[in-house]
Amino acid sequence: MAARVLIQYVVLRGDLRREPFSWPMGATVAQACHAAIAAVHAHYAHPDTAEYLAQGGSMRTVVLEAPDEPALSALADTLQQNGIDHKVWVEQPENIPTCVALRPYPKESVHHLLKTFKLLK
Question: Which has the least CB within 10 A, 14, 30, 36, 95?
Answer without folding.
Answer: 95
